[in-house]
Specification:
The protein is α+β, with helices and mostly antiparallel strands. It folds into three domains: about 90 residues, no CATH class; about 100 residues, Orthogonal Bundle (Helix Hairpins); about 160 residues, Heat Shock Protein 90 (2-Layer Sandwich), CATH 3.30.565.10. It has 13 helices and 13 strands. The strands form four sheets. A five-stranded mixed β-sheet has the order 8-10-11-13-12. Strand 3 and strand 4 form a beta hairpin. Helix 7 packs parallel to helix 8. The chain is rod-shaped. The C terminus is likely disordered.
Amino acid sequence: MQRVRHLSALLRSSPIRLAIGLVAVFATVNFVSLGLAWIQLRGNVEDQISANLEQQVAGFRVTGDPRTLAALVEAEAAAVDPANRILVFVAPSGDTFGNATASLRGREVEIRRRRGGRSLGEEGYELRTEAMAQGILVVGESRAPIRNMEETFIGLLVLSIIPTLLISLAAGFAMSLAAARRVRHFETTLTRLAQGDLAARVAEDKRGDDLSRIGAGIDRMAAAQEASMSALRQVSADIAHDLKTPVQRISVLLADLRNRLPAESPEAGIAERAVIEADRAVSVFQALLMIAQIEGGSARSRFEAVDLSGILSTFADIYSPAAEDSGHALRLSTLPEEPVLVRGDKTLLGQLVANLIENALRHTPEGCTVTLALIRQAEETVLSVADDGPGIPESERAAVLRRLYRLESARTTPGNGLGLSLVHAIADLHEARLDLHDNKPGLRVQVSFPPMARAQSGAENGARQRPRDRQAGSAGVETTTFNPMPNNSFLVKRGSP
């Protein structure tokens, strides 16, 4: 079934259709030309046969005596092979003379072999009858030339035109398949760009044809967009870096002001709210700086073999009390007995799990269940965090991975719109694929990690994959360090008096 769908998609591709169209035009022109040539040549042969018949009849008009005409016909017929030409004179007495016998039935003439005479031709005859010398003269020319010409044209069709068409079709298919592969490569690159992988490139060779020019145009567009996004990341990192310290100082001053005011005064309440808002601003700047540093790729140098099952088990234990306090159930599915190893940064992978758990607890109502699972497959290791809450509409799932984006229904809940953005950045750093699915009901977030060997190769080549991102992530944020769980509100809330 998969092959049928692939063949159907291939036949719908423009290069294949173009090849089939050109071969169809070539076949039509050849068949029309061959048909017109056949009609013309057949007409010429038939005209030649008619002219020969007329000449033969004219040669016997020299006499009007039946006996003389019979003698002439007998003499001429003796020198002619009846397979090629028929000469018959039906005398007034009903006797026939010539190299065959003929019987008249109305306007139809039936030719038969003469007893003891030579065989007639199998191709049939073009006949001419004329009343002459009180009898009927029948002259016939074999249709063998027309038959021979038919065989010649059929041989030309079978041995020349059809093989030429088949060879042209095969060559057109081969060239079209090469073009179709290039077009599919363009489609794959555009899909990766649409999904946010701005490092994707067509990287066409220098053939100089139209597809190469299109590929070069796509690469220029992708490079320009990557540069724009890199500049935007740089700006956001610079802003976060420059404003983090002043906002932290404001937060400290507001906290000092709050502590100096009477505990029950309205001014103390206002100061308390101002401290909370300042702390939220600091957490936003801290998350932006963390994302910038992760995208810079410097953490790859710390990659090592990490047991995902141990991380998942640890964070399930850490968050179970907080989940219980918020009215949720946190469930850990049965883990594989052996360690599930991936190459990565243990601190960042812990941050990824913590953010996914907090995201599920924060955006689901009381009574919901959050399930952690880890599945080891042949080609990848899949970590999933699922809930049975309201979920995320399919049309919004790509948008929630953007920085500072929040669903309309989530604007009243704590958070800054950077949790899933941070998860996405960590997944990209580890060459993992982040997918959001419908849990029916709820949301299921899956992070699919590559095998250890491929992940190690990706880490070693990381320095060549995103040079602009590293520049954006390194400028202005060198002193930023990774905090395993910055501003994890559920744990902070549980630890507060």
